[in-house]
């Protein structure tokens, strides 16, 4: 174990919002440490390799560092490189591949932060862990098979295979289109009667035309009910449909790590939206703050990088005011 270190602020999560909080702390003259259980901007790193953001590059900027791209909208690779360069520019104090196990206040009102590698103390803690680490499970037989994934990265793996894509929001539509273009036989299983309302406007006509032409099969008002090694069962309005299958890409969505938030002592009502002050981002525990999409609970379409960058300023201002 390292010697114990004390900081004004410990930030959990080295995503764009955690980094924005660190930059605000740095510019305010506060000591800080970012602790991240994976790679820098770990969630973005795990996005599909060819993903294009809905937002323009300007809306993804942090710390006043310009995000330059020749494209109207940046892609995943450009974003990962941009945030790496930002971390380098500000020489951010970041411990990567270090999971936080516990946070609690000691008798003196100071936060004790225990990780897999060290113990730290801090006057304030910011949780900026996002929501990408815990997939929403289908809870059906066969979901634990190796051919099933809740994280889609590169379409080449699925070339010439029978692929089922569960879901019809952006991630599901992207997976269906990209794997189809690598020669996969793609069947989309969609619980509702249409594509998701948030599908990117420039992608929607593409998937609609592929479905119309029969190049991608879409089973609406349907659910995957069982997965086996060589086939799957799908509940459709006409009854159970069994089709050959090599891979299942389950784009069913994600949620924050609620068990971790509870362990930290943050109040979670039945809605599973964490309790915090919307003006200061402080939770029910004094000095413990939330920042970024983790604040939205199950409503993961509510907060994004572009509309939660401001959390960093709000938090550091409140810390300085106290």
Describe this structure in words.
This protein has two domains: 198 residues, FAD/NAD(P)-binding domain (3-Layer(bba) Sandwich); 114 residues, 3-Layer(bba) Sandwich (FAD/NAD(P)-binding domain). The mean pLDDT is 94. Helix 1 packs parallel to helix 8. With 322 residues, it is α/β, with parallel strands linked by helices. It has eight helices and 17 strands. The radius of gyration is 21 Å and the shape is elongated. The two termini are 32 Å apart. The strands form four sheets. Strands 1, 2, 3, 4, 5, 6 and 17 form a seven-stranded mixed beta sheet that branches.
Q: How many independent structural domains?
A: 2
In the CATH hierarchy, the architecture of the largest domain is 3-Layer(bba) Sandwich
| DSSP strand content | 15-25%
Instruction: Give the structural class.
Output: alpha/beta
Helix content class: 10-25%
Structure at a glance:
The chain is α/β, with parallel strands linked by helices. Helix content is 22%, strand content 24%.
Question: Any key phrases for this structure?
Answer:
FAD/NAD(P)-binding domain, five-stranded parallel sheet, 2 domains, 8 helices, seven-stranded mixed sheet, 322 residues, monooxygenase activity, 22% helix, alpha/beta, Bdr, Auxin_biosynth/cation_transpt
Map the helices and strands.
Blueprint: E1 5-12, H1 16-27, E2 32-35, H2 42-45, H3 76-89, E3 94-95, E4 100-105, E5 111-115, E6 119-127, E7 134-135, E8 148-149, E9 162-166, H4 170-180, E10 185-189, H5 204-212, E11 217-219, E12 223-227, E13 231-236, E14 239-244, E15 247-250, E16 254-255, H6 258-263, E17 288-290, H7 305-308, H8 310-321
Parallel strand pairs: 1-2, 1-6, 2-3, 6-17, 8-15, 9-10, 9-15, 10-11
Antiparallel strand pairs: 4-5, 5-6, 7-16, 12-13, 13-14
Helix pairs in contact: 1-8
């Amino acid at each position: 174990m390292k010697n114990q270190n004390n900081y004004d602020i410990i930030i959990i999560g080295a995503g764009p919002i955690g980094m924005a909080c660190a930059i605000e702390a740095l510019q305010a003259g506060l000591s800080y440490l970012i602790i991240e259980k994976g790679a820098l901007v770990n969630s973005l790193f795990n996005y599909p390799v060819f993903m294009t953001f809905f937002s323009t590059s300007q809306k993804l900027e942090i710390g006043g560092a310009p995000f330059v791209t020749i494209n109207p909208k940046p892609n995943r690779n450009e974003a990962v490189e941009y945030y790496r360069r930002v971390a380098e520019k500000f020489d951010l104090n970041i411990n990567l591949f270090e999971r936080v196990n516990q946070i609690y206040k000691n008798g003196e009102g100071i936060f004790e932060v225990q990780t897999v590698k060290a113990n730290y103390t801090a006057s304030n803690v910011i949780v900026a862990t996002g929501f990408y680490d815990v997939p929403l499970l289908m809870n059906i037989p066969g979901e634990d098979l190796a051919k099933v994934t809740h994280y889609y990265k590169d379409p080449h793996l699925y070339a010439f295979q029978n692929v089922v894509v569960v879901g019809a929001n952006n991630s599901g539509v992207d997976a269906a289109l990209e794997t189809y273009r690598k020669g996969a036989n793609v069947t989309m299983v969609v619980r509702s009667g249409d594509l998701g309302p948030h599908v990117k406007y420039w992608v929607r006509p593409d998937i609609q035309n592929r479905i119309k032409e029969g190049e991608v099969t879409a089973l609406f008002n349907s659910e995957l009910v069982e997965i086996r090694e060589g086939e799957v069962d799908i509940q459709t309005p006409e009854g159970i449909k069994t089709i050959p299958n090599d891979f299942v890409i389950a784009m069913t969505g994600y949620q924050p790590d609620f068990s971790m938030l509870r362990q930290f002592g943050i109040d979670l009502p039945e809605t599973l939206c964490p309790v915090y002050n919307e003006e200061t981002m402080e939770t029910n525990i004094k000095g413990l703050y939330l920042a970024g999409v983790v604040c939205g609970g199950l409503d993961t379409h509510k907060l994004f990088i572009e509309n939660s960058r401001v959390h960093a300023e709000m938090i550091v201002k409140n810390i300085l005011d106290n």
